[in-house]
Design goal:
With 459 residues, the protein is α/β, with parallel strands linked by helices. The protein has three domains: 4-205, 3-Layer(aba) Sandwich (Rossmann fold), CATH 3.40.50.300; 214-360, Rossmann fold (3-Layer(aba) Sandwich); 384-457, RRM (RNA recognition motif) domain (Alpha-Beta Plaits, 2-Layer Sandwich), CATH 3.30.70.330. The chain is built from 16 helices and 17 strands. The strands form three sheets. A seven-stranded parallel sheet has the order 3-4-2-5-6-1-7, with helices on both faces. Strands 8-13-12-9-11-10 form a six-stranded parallel sheet, sandwiched between helices. It has a four-stranded antiparallel sheet with strand order 15-16-14-17, sandwiched between helices. Helix 2 packs parallel to helix 3 (52-63).
Length: 459
């Protein structure tokens, strides 16, 4: 493995890398960063969790001129969740570069606040193709100064029908720019897009060594439709069910299943595309910070989800196709952690299972499941609770300010404080469930960064 110090990066970026604890480059970083820093177009096949976001983030920040107030880098992502995740990662890398303005522009969000934010050009935009295309057409976003274009998870963007929007965007931005394309798979459609939008790109394919591949155990259970909820509840009552992602195919089934699990005593939340963006953000925050034990989601809603230690993924409904099944099971077993992927299959869904078996070329691991009758409500609570602070980046609030207030005036030990997420106008902090009320009272009575902010529990 290669040290980041061997790269010709700005001192500010090397300082960020050190602060974030990055010591050696991942394979995709080691192969892609040198040519990207030289200005070459790159097409890289790499999975989520491989370090690709840091790779293109460092590359575009290296070319950035903060003193020039114009849009210089554009990152396109398939979903709002992934765009938010990428934005956070780039902001962390840019922490030591003064006055870098990054905006996240996604559909499903009100247009007004975005237009207000675009009164002065940002340096970097991360967004979904539809909304970015809309701003370029309106003239609220100016692409003439773009030096770097990143297409992240390009295969998913094509699957979601964004091909025309992407090509229209490319026609509206600076002709001479570097194009970086990252994709988990490498179908003919991706090759065709690369040929149209890239100039002599360097092709990189990164496969993890066999001893570094995630240890994912798969298990298939055949169940009758009438017993599916009982089967799921029984599986979630085990140790791995304390942090689990459950997939349904339909949005209405996501809501119904999350409500039923909640009725049975599980700390469960729903995630799907019909929800308001703030509600989706808060669900993702709570699942990531362990104040929600079970997340019930559709495939599209879960695409931007990146939880490192996720021990269990359950397909409550069989995936429609083998590729979606592969994406689902890939949500567990991240960063070297062991994971379990369980699929519940009704007799009518057997043909889908046979299709997965045919594509994989190996027999599916079927196991009998003895389903015990429901014994009523038993509480399976998440270990943390989330507090909301009505202040964020716009108020110059940082995670360290919140941590300092909790360990200082509030008197909490650092081990009782979990993940802290700071958004533009709100911040979320996870507290050990037993101490959440104490932390709430102390924060309300005290100050954060010398100021009083409204603090409330997230129900």
């Amino acid at each position: 493995m290669t040290s980041f110090a061997t790269l010709p990066l700005k001192p500010a970026l090397l300082a960020s890398v050190e602060t974030l604890g990055y010591t050696t480059m991942t394979p995709v970083q080691a192969q892609s960063l040198p040519p990207m820093l030289q200005g070459r177009d790159v097409i890289a096949q790499a999975q989520t969790g491989s370090g690709k976001t840091a790779a293109f983030g460092l590359s575009l920040l290296q070319t950035l001129d903060p003193d020039t107030i114009r849009l210089q880098a554009l990152v396109l992502c398939p979903t709002r969740e992934l765009a938010d995740q990428v934005s956070k990662a780039i902001r962390k890398l840019a922490a030591n570069i003064p006055n870098v303005k990054l905006l996240t522009l996604c559909g499903g969000m009100p247009l007004g606040p975005q237009l207000a934010s675009l009164t002065h050009d940002p340096h970097i935009v991360v967004g979904t193709p539809g909304r970015v295309q809309e701003h370029l057409k309106r003239g609220s976003l100016h692409g003439g100064g773009i030096k770097v274009l990143v297409l992240d998870e390009a295969d998913r963007m094509l699957d979601m029908g964004f091909t025309e929007a992407i090509e229209d965007i490319i026609g509206r931005i600076a002709r001479h720019h570097q194009t970086l394309l990252f994709s988990a798979t490498y179908p003919d459609e991706i090759r065709a897009v690369s040929q149209r939008v890239q100039h002599n790109p360097l092709q990189i394919t990164v496969d993890a060594p066999a001893d570094e591949r995630p240890a994912i155990e798969q298990c298939f259970h055949e169940v009758d439709p009438a017993q599916k909820v009982d089967a799921l509840a029984q599986l979630l009552a085990g140790d791995r069910g304390q942090h689990a992602l459950v997939f349904c195919n339909m949005r209405k089934d996501v809501d119904a299943l999350a409500q039923e699990l909640d009725r049975r005593g599980f700390s469960a939340l729903a995630l799907h595309g019909d929800m308001e963006q703030r509600d989706r953000d808060e669900v993702l925050v709570r699942f990531a910070n362990r104040s929600c034990a079970v997340l019930v989601a559709t495939d599209v809603a879960a695409r931007g989800l990146d939880i490192v230690a996720l021990p269990l993924v359950v397909s409550y409904d069989m995936a429609h196709d083998p590729e979606t099944h592969t994406h689902r099971i890939g949500r567990t077993g991240r960063a070297g952690e062991a994971g379990l992927a369980i699929t519940l299959c009704t007799p009518r869904e057997r043909p889908k299972a046979a299709n997965i078996e045919e594509i994989s070329g190996t027999p599916l691991p079927w196991r009998p499941l003895k389903i015990s009758p429901s014994r009523g409500k038993t509480l399976h609570l998440a270990p943390m609770k989330t507090l909301v602070i009505d202040a964020g980046r716009q108020d110059k609030l940082r995670p360290g300010d919140i941590l300092g207030a909790l360990t200082g005036e509030a008197g909490l030990a650092a081990k009782e404080i979990g993940k802290i997420d700071v958004f533009a106008t709100r911040a979320y902090v996870a507290i050990s469930r037993a101490l959440a009320n104490k932390a709430l009272e102390r924060l309300r009575a005290g100050r954060i960064k010398g100021r009083n902010f409204r603090v409330r529990p997230l129900a």
